[in-house]
Records
---
Amino acid sequence: MSDNKPVVRMDAPAPEGLEGEGFFATKLSSVIGLARSYSLWPLPFATSCCGIEFMAFLNPTYDGSRFGMERNSFSPRQADMLMVCGTISKKLAPILKQVYTQMAEPKWVIAVGACASSGGIFDTYSVLQGIDKIIPVDVYVPGCPPRPEQIIEGVMQVQELSQSESLRRRDLPEYKALLDSYGIE
Ligand code: SF4
């Protein structure tokens, strides 16, 4: 078992901008990106063993709350980061897609573990071979199961994405085309 301890960061960097005595100026999009990235509301869609690693990620040792994810949501309308942890059967796939479509923009998706990313060891007729067959995925976390540190890494990548993406990204034709390719309006 690894004895690597997660690093506690208490110093979220300020966005790039102009600083002077008594003032700081930056872009509105940078401030909104910073706020979004440190107030993610995850929706755990946990179906099997990877869900246990997600629970470990939230426990006091790894403490997912350090990332501003204090509030887990089990309601798609009050969540902006879908974390799919576990095997998704083809029968369950429409439910997952419905959950995704009920989430408000902007939203991000993490495929946690081999099953969510690619079907994992279950190369069978009944298992979806990766959730990206039905919804767009932003970050893939490898492993069977991934360790909580890897889930943390995945969350930090979503934080980077949410900080760097343009406020208008969701209005871009490329994004709409991506959703169209999944049959999502
Ligand atoms: S990736 Fe491995 S640990 Fe995770 S749900 Fe699949 S079989 Fe279980």
---
Amino acid sequence: MICGFRTTPWSARRARASSTRWATFDRSRPEIGAIATGVAQRALDECLRYSRSRSAFGQPIASFQAIQFMLAEYGQSVSRRCACLTYKAAWMVESRETPNAISSYAKLFGSDACMKITTDAVQIFGGYGYMKEYPVEKLMRDAKLLQIYEGTSQIQHVGHRARSAEGLTARGPPHESATGR
Ligand SMILES: Cc1cc2nc3c(=O)[nH]c(=O)nc-3n(C[C@H](O)[C@H](O)[C@H](O)COP(=O)(O)OP(=O)(O)OC[C@H]3O[C@@H](n4cnc5c(N)ncnc54)[C@H](O)[C@@H]3O)c2cc1C
């Protein structure tokens, strides 16, 4: 009691704040996975279009195997890795499960894949890719943001390491040992 008011112990308030924070991340990180999937898909679409219209050495650059391999790999990355993890995390949120680790994976793998794909998209566009007049420069900058906010990629790794050290499953309760940002 302070001045006639009943107070909640500090430790209880801290525990409640921590649980609210993690519940928020469980729901917000899949959104980052979804944005990453969309940005990566857009980069892929732009690359497909551009590589068919841009010619070098007398043929469209899309006919070069080096370019084809990149595009094929990115198609798989977007549809398998980014989208699947994001759907799984979203499904767990809807089912009122605790998707702590899966939400984090959706953000980490989604944003890292998006960064790789958009950086290579700039490469495929060559000098034009570096210019603001072409779309992929903005996509690459957007991808970088996805690796930074809602907990940087490094912080997601710290969380995964903590979970592994504690022997927790992908769904396990988590998290006090990892920093939140
Ligand atoms: C465009 C934009 C929009 C944003 N919007 C919001 C918002 O709406 N709300 C909000 O709250 N914040 C927002 N942020 C802030 C964002 O969440 C922080 O920038 C982010 O959490 C990183 O914190 P920091 O900048 O203080 O970097 P720092 O914490 O100083 O980190 C610097 C570097 O050290 C690494 N690092 C830090 N701690 C560890 C560790 N323990 N182990 C390993 N590596 C570590 C980081 O990964 C990073 O590489 C936004 C940022 C940007 C760029």
